[in-house]
Write a structure and sequence with these properties.
Layout lengths: L2 E5 L4 H12 L3 E5 L8 H10 L5 E2 L6 H11 L4 E4 L6 H6 L1 H17 L8 E7 L23 H17 L5 E7 L1 E3 L18 H9 L6 E4 L11 E2 L1 E3 H17 L5 E6 L5 E2 H12 L5 E4 L14 H7 L7 H14 L1
Parallel strand pairs: 1-2, 1-4, 2-3, 4-5, 5-6, 6-11, 7-10, 8-13
Antiparallel strand pairs: 9-12
Helix pairs in contact: 1-2, 1-8, 5-6, 7-9, 7-11, 9-11
The structure holds uridine-5'-diphosphate-4-deoxy-4-fluoro-alpha-D-galactose.
């Protein structure tokens, strides 16, 4: 069984990817400092897998962490690097922390790939690298635009770092540009677990539906979109998880590839208001919301052109957004 080191494996996307790796015949190893995740998620992962998935509580920015990986597991066949800070607003308040953690962990990881005898790296990038694209849907060849936040900039710099490293051909890498992940594992055992007040739309909706929040604020209804609210490409987190497994397989099948970039979305855009309506349908209850001013830094609309991911990577999102909203609601109710 191939050993895959999953940094940030106790987090939202990481935990779902660990489950899918295990189910696909890989041997995942979770490396997480638990700075933004809860230890009970590790038990839940084990419960879904019916097996104890190895876990190392380590910081990815520290060189000695990788020595511990080698001491415990020997060589590693691939790394999926999720570990990063991800709150756009917080990154504006604490830019240096974001640079130190997000760039620091990726560069430290790269410096230690040789020690782990590892030649394959999957990097969590983001559609944020495109800013507000002039042409929709956005393709991998669309221009990278000025980052709206320090968080977005760390993703751009991460991609640049991988591009520079690719010239030396010491390892293969794939950057996956995620659109908006939503949903949860259908078991309701793992899902998105925001600390404090959620920043993202779906957890805010489900927490409002559960009575934890009084009402949802819809940030702006005067955008140039059919119903005036922003449009995003919402993708089920398990479809997103599968893209990482495909990325590992792709590097195996194409040893000549040094670096690639793929859009990981569904190819469809849905508005904020449509998501509220979908939640009301799925939960069979009304959601209290109000229209609030626009949120600084929000882009108006974005959705993915997925033809390169479909035709080159050989991956396609399969789950509907209705399923994703159902799974997110199920997870919230179980909490
Ligand atoms: N929204 C609301 N009310 C809320 C929360 C969100 O109306 O309480 C709206 C936002 O204004 C936006 C849409 O819902 O129009 C989606 O917002 P999210 O915060 O869920 O997602 P974003 O598209 O802003 O963020 C995503 C990722 C980030 C990434 C960013 C890049 O979650 O990691 O895209 O733009 F950096």
């Amino acid at each position: 069984m191939k050993k895959i080191l999953v940094t940030g494996g106790a987090g939202y996307i990481g935990s779902h990817t660990v489950v899918r790796l295990f189910e696909s015949g890989y041997s995942p190893i979770i490396m997480d400092n638990l700075s933004n995740s809860e230890p009970f998620i590790l038990d839940r992962i084990n419960k879904i897998c019916g097996s104890d998935i190895p876990f190392l509580q380590l910081d990815c920015t520290q060189q000695k962490s990788y020595q511990q990986v080698v001491d415990n597991f020997g060589s590693i066949d691939g790394v999926i690097h999720f570990a990063a800070y991800k709150a756009v607003g917080e990154s504006v308040e604490k830019p240096a922390q974001y640079y130190q953690n997000n760039i620091g962990s990726l560069s430290q990881l790269i410096l230690n790939l040789g020690k782990m005898n590892c030649g394959k790296l999957v990097f969590s990038s983001s559609c944020t690298v495109y800013g507000q694209p002039n042409i929709l849907p956005v393709t991998e060849k669309s221009p990278i635009q000025h980052a709206e936040s320090p968080y977005g900039y760390t993703k751009q710099v991460g991609e640049e770092l991988l591009l520079s490293e690719a010239k030396n051909k010491k390892f293969q890498s794939i950057a996956l540009r995620y659109f908006n992940p939503i949903g949860a594992h259908p078991s309701g055992l793992i899902g998105e677990l925001p600390k404090g007040i959620p920043n993202n739309l779906l957890p805010y909706i489900t927490q409002t539906g559960a009575g934890i929040r009084k009402e949802l604020s819809i940030f702006g209804n005067d955008y140039n979109t059919p119903d005036g609210t922003c449009i995003r490409d919402f993708i089920h987190v398990l479809d997103l998880a599968d893209a990482h497994i495909r990325a590992l397989e792709y590097m195996e099948e194409h040893p000549e590839t040094s670096i690639d970039f793929f859009n990981i979305g569904t190819g469809n855009g849905n508005s904020v208001l449509e998501m509220v309506e979908l939640f009301e349908k799925v939960s069979q209850q009304k959601l209290s919301y109000k229209i609030a001013p626009r949120r600084t830094g929000d882009i108006e609309k974005i959705w993915a052109d997925t033809s390169i991911a479909n035709n080159v990577l050989g991956w396609k999102a399969k789950k509907s957004i209705e399923t994703a909203v159902k799974d997110a609601w199920n997870w919230q109710k179980n909490l």
